[in-house]
Every structure is written in structure tokens, then in C-alpha cells.
Amino acid sequence: MKKVLFVLFLIANTAAVSAQKYFTKTGFTEFKASVETFEPVEAVNESTSAVLNAETGDVAALMFIRAFHFKVALMEEHFNENYMDSDKFPKAQFKGNLEGFDLASLTDKPTELPVTGVLTIRGIEKEVSTVALISKKGEQLHVSSGFEVRPEEFDIEIPSIVAGKIAETVIINLEYELNKKE
User: Fold this and answer.
1) Residue 21 half-sphere exposure, CB side, CA atoms within 13 Å?
2) pTM
3) Is 139 helix (H, G, I), strand (E, B) or coil?
4) CA-wise closest residue to 27 among 42, 43, 44, 46
5) Domains of the chain, start order
6) What is the pLDDT of residue 106?
7) pLDDT per position as a tens digit, 7-46
8) Distance separating alpha carbons of residues 166 and 162, to the nearest angstrom
């Protein structure tokens, strides 16, 4: 009995160790919440961490809210203090799956795959479904995607005095260059 359990343990650990993973710590994530005729409300985060399990298509991304940078410093301050409460909720994350992911079939021509998962912002989880474009060049995977959220879905209150200057729907775009983890 002990031998059977030991063999099962070895098989399970070997499978976990041999899983091909791709990752980045310099992923590009941006959001746009602009309304025409007003100053653009948009920010960029170039330090998103992401990992992709090439055997299962599972994907996860993590970003620090304070890593979003605006062209206008005052907007950045209001974003962190008044809207996102970055001290209390310093991170946002996504955990999901690229449906039908097959590493062997990828080429340098982007393949469109459905992606579903859970986006967590301000401690609130929301299911997200979208499409990702994924391609492979050498040992690097390129993933791009986009989706929309509404601030109220994450209990983000927009004061009425500025409500007309911020879009009701926020567009989130991402570009990740994932490298094979050795």
C-alpha cells in the first residue's frame, strides 16, 4: 500500500513539475474611461505579471493598482485615493482559462480563443468572458485581449460632479509577451 501511494505521489509531482509555463512581469494593461469633449481619462500599467499553463490553458494575471500611470498627476492621485482605494485594495487580478488552448497548433499568425474567468477588483469578483488573440514566435507567446467593465460592478462610486466626464463603461486592453519558464 505504501509503495502504491509513493508511486502516485511521484506521478502527481512529476506532472506538476513538467507543466510548461509561460510568464511575464512586464505585461501591458491599459484602461480608457474617456468621454468626448473632456480630458482623456486613461492610464497604463506596464508591470502586470501573468502566467499561462501551456498544458491546461489556465491563465492568471496580477497587477498593482498604483502601477497605473496617468498623463495628469492629479488624476492619478484621485484614481488611487478616491476611486480605487489603493491602500486598502492594492491589487487587481484575473484567473481564467483560454478555452481550446493547444500550444502545438500555435503559429506566428494570431489564433482567436475564448477566455473566461474571474476578475477581482477592490475585493469584488466578477465573471468575465471575452476573446484573446494568441500567437507563438520562437519560445515566446503573444497574448492580446480586451473587455469592458462598469465602475459600479466593483462598488466604485463616481461623484455626480464628475460623472459626465467619466465613461459609464471602462475599456480594458492588454498585451502580454510571455516567455517560457525554464
Assistant:
1) 14
2) 0.85
3) coil
4) 46
5) 17-180 (2.40.128.110)
6) 96
7) 444 444 444 445 799 999 999 999 999 988 788 899 999 9
8) 7
Distance between CA atoms of 156 and 114, rounded to whole angstroms? 28
Please return the burial class of 100, using the count of CB atoms within 10 Å of its CB with bins 0-12, 13-18 and 19+.
exposed
Give CA–CA dist 118/113, Å, rounded: 17
What is the C-alpha separation between 82 and 123, in angstroms, rounded?
Answer: 16
C-alpha–C-alpha distance, residues 87 and 81, integer Å = 8
Instruction: State the DSSP string of 108-172.
Output: SS-EEEEEEEEEEETTEEEEEEEEEEEEEETTEEEEEEEEEE-GGGGT-PPPTTTGGGS-SSEEE
Per DSSP, helices labelled H in the chain are 2-18, 73-78
- Residue 42 to residues 17, 33, 101, 138, Cα–Cα distance (Å): 40, 6, 31, 33
